[in-house]
Amino acid sequence: MTEAHTDVLVVGAGPAGASAAWCVARAGWHVVLVEARAQVGVPMQCAEFLPAAPGRLVADDAGVQTTQVLGTSLPSGQVTRLAAPGRMIDRPRFDQALAARAVDAGAVLRTATRCVAVAEGGRRVVVRQNGGVSNWRCKLLIAADGPTSSVARRLGLPPLRTLHSRQYRVRLRHPLHETRVWLSAAFPGGYGWLFPRGEEANLGVGVERSSGVDLRAVLDDFHHGLCAIGLVDEAVLSRTGGRIPVGGLRSPVVHGRVLFAGDAAGLAHPVTGAGIAPAVHAGELAGDAAVRFLAGEAQALRDYAGELEDCYGSALRHACARREAMLEAWREGRFDDAAARRGWVVFPEYFAA
Ligand SMILES: Cc1cc2nc3c(=O)[nH]c(=O)nc-3n(C[C@H](O)[C@H](O)[C@H](O)COP(=O)(O)OP(=O)(O)OC[C@H]3O[C@@H](n4cnc5c(N)ncnc54)[C@H](O)[C@@H]3O)c2cc1C
């Protein structure tokens, strides 16, 4: 088996991995970014809403539609409209732009290349490409391989708690200028969404995996309900879905020479499922920590773990607690408007002590 060397090996060219690779490459270190998919960002597994956030995010050209308001439908059917600015993006284009930025900075991107083994605490990685297998030696490994991180599994670390989701792309009957969310006993531990993208929309549901509900049946019922009230067409243009971490920060987020980033670190918001922006941010933090470590700052990896905890730890713990309370209300058959308002991020009750 051939053996190659790199300073940093990044597994997964999603927003976290591509951002990490960019940071390492622009500092002049050798970085290899391996991605299991043949094309970055394809197939798309996302509702494509990027909440407006302070700070910068690249890939501005991937915007499809901006929205200012989120309409939240409560279990009683009452709809509350509150400011929640953000934009709908073309997620494949967004991810591809981040990967292109990393390559422009000097990162080596290998698509259709899957990490299949991790040894020596992350310093030796085996990848499979075109039926062949090659061996990489690296000084650091950044695991940005999503919510079901196989790097974590191969290191013997426990899986993250995840919610499962399904989504249809549908045509809107009328233009929709806001994002819409439905909180209902039909979606235990999650919610239904309709996010507009021009003449079409992403219509999806997420539910707690242990609830035992038939996700497809729930989505079809939801879809038929929105057809009946004239919001969307019946034809399903495309389908997707996937897992979303709902258990908060992975512990630990640094394991020897392995740094977890993005969903692999458990960074998606357990209530909203929003994980694109934290993935970009964590990728950049992981990349910068790798650069400092390679330059001889031994504490850089510990600092990375501290920064993730400072930036996200308490917000994620609060969200986990709120989601648990919502699930309890669901299980006890008392999921009413008050319970929904305490569990959903746009309401003041969510932030109350
Ligand atoms: C249905 C759905 C809707 C969502 N909607 C939103 C939304 O509207 N807004 C939002 O902010 N967030 C949303 N999210 C969450 C968001 O998509 C994630 O938080 C985000 O993609 C995390 O980025 P990442 O880089 O950490 O991981 P990913 O984007 O999952 O990237 C991981 C990459 O690693 C690759 N990979 C995995 N294993 C290996 C391996 N062994 N070898 C090589 N490569 C590997 C995968 O192919 C993938 O490309 C949604 C998620 C789902 C499932």
Present the secondary structure layout.
Blueprint: E1 3-11, H1 15-26, E2 31-34, E3 49-51, E4 63-73, E5 79-89, H2 91-104, E6 108-110, E7 113-119, E8 124-129, E9 132-143, H3 150-154, E10 162-172, E11 179-182, E12 191-197, E13 200-208, H4 215-228, E14 232-245, E15 254-255, E16 258-260, H5 276-294, H6 300-331, H7 337-343, H8 348-351
Parallel strand pairs: 1-2, 1-9, 2-6, 4-11, 9-16
Antiparallel strand pairs: 3-5, 4-5, 7-8, 8-9, 10-13, 10-14, 11-12, 12-13, 15-16
Helix pairs in contact: 1-2, 1-5, 5-6, 6-7
The structure holds flavin-adenine dinucleotide.
Brief overview:
By secondary structure, the protein is of the alpha/beta class. Helices cover 30% and strands 33% of the residues. It contains 8 helices and 16 strands.
Tell me what you see in this structure.
- The protein contains eight helices and 16 strands.
- The longest helix is centred in the last third of the chain and has 32 residues, at 300-331.
- The mean pLDDT is 95.
- Helix content is 30%, strand content 33%.
- The chain has two domains: 3-44 and 92-160 and 246-325, FAD/NAD(P)-binding domain (3-Layer(bba) Sandwich), CATH 3.50.50.60; 64-88 and 161-245 and 327-351, D-Amino Acid Oxidase, subunit A, domain 2 (D-Amino Acid Oxidase, Chain A, domain 2), CATH 3.30.9.10.
- Flavin-adenine dinucleotide (FAD) is lined by residues 11-17, 34-37, 45-50, 114-115, 144-146, 150, 165, 167, 204, 241-242, 244, 262-264, 268, 273-276, 279.
